[in-house]
Fold this protein.
Amino acid sequence: VFLLHAKKTVKMEVVIYIYHGLTMLDAIGPYEVLRNVEGVNVKFVSRQKGEIRADSHFIHINSKYEIDEVTKADLLLIPGSTIGFVREMKDEKVLNWIRRINETTQKTVTVCTGSIILAATGLLNGKKATSHWKPIELLSQYGAIPTRERIIEEGKFIRSAGVSAGIDMAIYLVNLLRGEKAAKAAQLAI
């Protein structure tokens, strides 16, 4: 529950996991929505602090936190990529961190191939998942059920399809957590 009463909102800690080769809009689209919500604190977290290169090689983002420094979050967001997700889904340190953070979250969400990274943890075993249309069948290798929907919500997990669906998912998420008025305000802000 994020509302204490009508006038005071509880802080929400959002962690966006970033990695080399990510599709920047998968992280920045939801960030732009979430940063416009009162009481939300967003942290970009990576395996190691420093500059993270996008899959385009044109844009970089600075990660101020590494996974060893972040032990909990209200919301964990895992963005996708064109190819970088393959390395991430095989990195046991990253997968173990995601499992631990997930134990503390109220929502764990993915954009695009971020769902394949999450599936590699085993957390989506037997659950429907969506992704970018091209690699969606990889989900079944990790026990998830590939489903061609724009947004899928099951319990605490929300998965969205490719790139721009992440923005829609973030607005949907704000509506769930803070209500329609906050979602419309965030939508208007972007």
